[in-house]
């Protein structure tokens, strides 16, 4: 006998998950000039002068500040590019990434 033909009556489950977002963090140090941190934030993260100044001062006072959130790859690219911009001028400026909860 042939196998009976069965018809699934349930829709296939769609498992489309949003990619987890990653934060780019600006880490304070004692050497990088404030105006240079602001310049890097403006150039790499397309921030205005005021917002860049606020982010820089938050990192300066608290030790660290969230700059932006992106997908993992973009967050890592941006953090590396911004850290390299400081290194090119001999500054220890550091941007890191971490996954959002
Ligand atoms: N603390 C630095 C200074 O006083 C400025 C600074 C701010 C450096 C934020 C890094 O992530 C930073 N010149």
UniProtKB/TrEMBL annotation:
Location of the Adaptor protein ClpS core domain: 18-96
Gene this chain is encoded by: clpS
Pfam families linked: ClpS
Alphabetical UniProt keywords: Hydrolase, Protease
Designated name of the protein: ATP-dependent Clp protease adapter protein ClpS
Organism of provenance: Dankookia rubra
Lineage, uppermost ranks: Bacteria, Pseudomonadati, Pseudomonadota, Alphaproteobacteria, Acetobacterales
UniProt GO molecular function: peptidase activity
UniProt keyword Protein transport present: no
Record keyword Hydrolase present: yes
Signal peptide boundaries: none
Functional description taken from the UniProt entry: Involved in the modulation of the specificity of the ClpAP-mediated ATP-dependent protein degradation.
Subunit structure comment from the entry: Binds to the N-terminal domain of the chaperone ClpA.
GO biological processes: protein catabolic process; proteolysis
Annotated segments matching region Disordered: 81-101
Family according to the record: Belongs to the ClpS family.
